[in-house]
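Re: the 375-residue chain
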Amino acid sequence: MLSNKILTLIIGSIVLYAASAGISYMIFNKVLTGPVSISTPFGNLTDITSGSEEGTKDRPCPLNGAMYTKVREEAWQKRRPLGVMVEDHIDSRPLRGLTRADVIYEAVAEGGITRQLVMYLCQDAGDISPIRSARTYFLDWLSEYDALYAHVGGANTDGPADALGQIKDYGIYDMDQFGLGFPTYWRGTEKFAPHNVHSTTKKLWEAAEKRNYGPEDDKGVRWDKNFTSWKFKDDTALEARGDQKPISVPFWANQPDYTSTWQYDKTTNTYKKYHGATAQIDDLTNENMFAKNLVVQFQTERDANDGYPDGHLLYGTKGSGKALFFADGKAVEGKWIKESRTSRTKYVDAKGKEIEFNRGLIWIQTIPVGNVVEY
């Protein structure tokens, strides 16, 4: 009899705990807005906002033209651009830290599942996750910035898709989780591995400094000595903006969960990211993921044929090809041009004039040649 009462008490306690945990989770995820406090193995972190400084914002970010204060410029002058490999597997959502990026590159990693190279320099993110493994074509885009590369291992099968081998051969400033470990990186408890590796811009830049991966190389040459910024402009006036219909960007037709739908917000002059009818929310800031500028570039896609079970891919990142540009509620046809791995990609319209981007986040999606974008 006593044992039955104890068992009933234990079961009741478990049910009560589960109910309270569920309610707490609901409140935390649905009711709270704005930056959130994130529990980590070394204490709580909160998002570091990127527009809170007092002062005149007259210093353009080299990566996307967004205007910041002198204080913020002094901060980014002391560091090197940082590229972080963030996945978008359906089990990894919601993602964290992407709304604090300067530029984002997105392409399929394998099996139609996309991954993002998230570039930071002028902003900070109090949590970036989930961080995943390296892929070869992302190195070609990363190399334009002579940047740090944060990732968790990577493709290493012998052949043209051997990203880990190429990181060494190319002299990439490597920030692999397997070489840095805790506390630069940590695994959260909110998702199952491998979808739960976290870091922050602060921790990654601090780790880079300890490795002497600062803004200058070992010969004293700054990362931006030969860097060419894109051209930037202010937003078009509200009354002159277009009425852009939803933009559908398919990566693989047989994987509709990864097709991006972008909804244009005329008031804020931003493109908000959806998968189907589901808004993609940054779990760090509770903001709908967005772009001030959307670029869709068409590149050849082929199998690396390196024996990897899920099939490593290769993209034709060098040369030129068709591109679509979306800004100010309007679409422009043109092309991308990239002469070499380290050369800066140029974006031009149909007449060969260089594209001027609105100041702010630039999101670049690479899809296979022949795919049809609806807009």
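The helical segments are 2-31, 70-76, 136-142, 163-170, 177-180, 201-210.
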